[in-house]
Predict the structure.
Amino acid sequence: MFLSFSVPLLLLAWAHSAAAATADEWRGRSIYQIITDRYALPSSTPKSDCDVSRQTFCGGTWNGIRENLDYIQNAGFTAIWISPINKNYEGPRTAYGDPYHGYWVTDVSQLNSKFGTADDLKALSADLHKRGMLLMVDIVVNNVMVTSTTNPDYSDCFFKDASFYHPYCPIVWGDTQSEQTCWFGDEKVPLADVDTTNPTVIQRYGDWIQGMVKEYGIDGLRIDAAKHVQKSFWPTFCGKAGVFCMGEVFGGAEVDPIAEWQGPDALDSVLNFPMYAALRDAYSIPGPANITQLDQVFQDSKKKFKDTTLLGNFVENHDVPRWHNLSVDPQSLYNAMTWNFMADGIPIVYYGQEQSFSGSGDPNNREALWPSNYANTTAYQYITLLNKLRNFFVNTTDWAKSETEILTSSPHGFAFLKGPIISILTNIGSPPQAGVHISVKTPWETTTALTNVITCTQWVVGSNRMVDAQYSLGGVPVVLVPSDQLKGSGLCGTELAYVDSHGGKADALNANSARSPRKLSIIPFVAAVAASLKFLL
Ligand SMILES: *[C@@H]1O[C@H](CO)[C@@H](O)[C@H](O)[C@H]1NC(C)=O
Ligand SMILES: *[C@@H]1O[C@H](CO)[C@@H](O)[C@H](O)[C@H]1NC(C)=O
Ligand SMILES: *[C@@H]1O[C@H](CO)[C@@H](O)[C@H](O)[C@H]1NC(C)=O
Ligand SMILES: *[C@@H]1O[C@H](CO)[C@@H](O)[C@H](O)[C@H]1NC(C)=O
């Protein structure tokens, strides 16, 4: 009796304490973002439709997530971020429906029973840790939901006394003081602003987060509406939590107002809204194809952010339109996503992105995932490939900490180097464009054998250290790695050896028929990107 109890308990305790992860431990991770209500139904529940426009619960739970972790881990993700877990408003339906998303928190000291029990959440956490994965939880501390701006009732809230809140005022956007003291939400769903300068609030929030992180084995926090709380709140709060903190500082392509929220006097990390805006404006089709802005955001980020390698990179989330609502062309998504995985930062994929969901903004971008049958789509396979490559370099080298460097930037192309990986991205989309090519100066010697990891074709560095991407079969991303550095990655076979001598084209190597490498010609060698597009077209 004693043994059968103590062993699992010890293991659990170990798993939890071993996990509570710092910024350093998150840098190399890859995150899959989940809205718990929409990711997976528990096995006990019959499959049902989910009409996003109804803005109500569709039945996803923590057990549903736990029972469907293979789908996430098989795609190479090493962490998940789940929507808020704490108790929400439970009254009558509002003008914006019910709080299926979990952001209408009332009492952070309780769990949201809609998504399961404390044991269910602990089981999810333990299962993740058993898989070597981390758990990031979304938290809301800026505000609580009430039903009135004039006579709010706080009796169901964590802070029950009106003195712990700022009096109602509507936010004047752009005015920091107002953004931090006035109320989020509106008259229909008032979100009362907690007075986070009150010492009792600071103390009680600190004790709460410390306890919750321990209790559920949480490894990181995603902090909702972080800029609506005074900056000086966060170092103390996150210190108590003892885990990585990534804040939501909503914004556009302007780097300054976002960058000031990262650092020792603020947060470990913020979501990379400037790069999101830049990628959207550079790669969406139709779109402004604004590579200048991408270049600008990159340069500004390098100067202004404390550590770009910790930023949360994304092209979709629950507050912005799905990529495919802005841009139908699949290559536009693959190119933009490649930036998120191969440049500085922690890649985040919003559930459903891998299924090419295409809903517009809230609530249409919160589709249920189960109707997709968790299919092994081209996008899913592409993400798997990017994760596999990134995980390999993260695990075996200092890659995650290395600095991204731009190699070339032109109206249709953008190439950058991070560690020994060159990514060449284009915004021309799927149609072939024989006239377009992107020449990139590499740091590698002429004749160095490279592998384009996306297609498993072999390239060779040409004269003057150049490579040249051509798009006669359409604008697919190119990701080049010196072939000898791929050894052991499980990518593109073990040895990459075959070079077709005709016309400078390269073919994928069949691992079963590995031949000894042919002598590489010294003649400048240009591999057509198009040589092997089976995978992406
Ligand atoms: C590109 O972005 C820059 C910086 O935001 C802006 O000034 C410029 O007008 C944009 N160009 C196009 C073509 O949209
Ligand atoms: C964008 O989203 C809206 C609402 O979800 C939908 O009606 C529309 O068809 C979507 N557009 C595309 C291109 O998918
Ligand atoms: C998805 O399909 C690809 C190509 O057929 C296959 O290699 C891969 O193993 C599949 N992944 C999963 C998780 O089934
Ligand atoms: C890298 O590390 C992660 C997390 O420990 C692990 O899940 C993954 O299998 C590793 N990948 C490689 C390619 O070694």
